[in-house]
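S.,

Sequence below, as promised.
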Amino acid sequence: MSRPFSPHNSSPPGSLVRVNGKIRAREVRVIGTDGNQLGVLTLGDALTLARTNGVDLVEIAPNATPPVCRLVDFGKFRYEQAKREKESRKHQHANKVKEVQLSPKIGPHDLGVKRDHAIGFLCEDMKVRVKLRFRGRQKAHTEFGFAVVNRFVKEAAAWGQADSPPKMLGDRDLNVVLSPLPRNKRAKHPQQSETEEPEEAPKSPERPPAPDSAA
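The prediction came back faster than expected:
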């Protein structure tokens, strides 16, 4: 007996999504290629319908009764899933605030390292709190600390902007929060390859042609 969808009869290693012949339920609720519900079908009928439409049968809700499956190209499904996960991580990062600590006497090299860390966070859509602490007699010359922080903000301006001017919190801490610029206005990540190609949807292997109904 030939297997349905031989190129797609099993899910890729490590995948938690059942596809085509790996689906175990006898009956499944099917969502069509246009997003409309097609009702409850036997697994065999659902596989035949997927083959006729030149797509895969992908189980998207295994714990439902009966399980819910979608008629979709599995390569496209994985691409959409990866995009959703990426957007989810982006929103999670947007709620995170990373902290970079400076000192009034920080050297140019150390300042550059701290700046590069901040730029990396901004490129991941995270806010950055820049904190400079004055110690002992340094509190009498806060202008040096302001100069350091303002220079830091200026050098990171292509990736993030200050929510408000740097300000003192108490008599020891100078703070400013940088928010990432929108992606279309933000400079490219310094460590990103200039030859990096844009992300494309993965291609699925060719499937056997649908049965000829006229045969």
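The helical segments are 43-52, 74-94, 108-123, 142-155.

Coffee later?
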